[in-house]
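It is worth pausing here to work through a concrete case rather than discussing structure prediction in the abstract. The textbook approach is simple: state the sequence, then state the predicted structure, then interpret. We follow exactly that order.
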Amino acid sequence: MTGAKEQFLNFATSVKTAATAGVTTASAGVGTWFDVIPDDIGKLASLVGLCLTAVLLVFHIKKGLLDIRKANLEIKLLQNKIKD
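Step two, the predicted structure:
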């Protein structure tokens, strides 16, 4: 059974979450522009969307760096096996 942190990281780094945050932010901006929704709600939705986008970017960058470190360690292990 996976831990709560791992489940959250999987959710936070999923493409579906990123797409949902982007579409929601864009929809709120368009709705505010056409006066379909009040300015305060549109501004709040845009702020939440920006925050979610920032969180997703940080998680993706950290995940990418972790993958690079993992690949480098695997390369070193293989190089040590070849030397032996």
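Step three, interpretation. The mean pLDDT is 82. The chain has one domain: 4-83.
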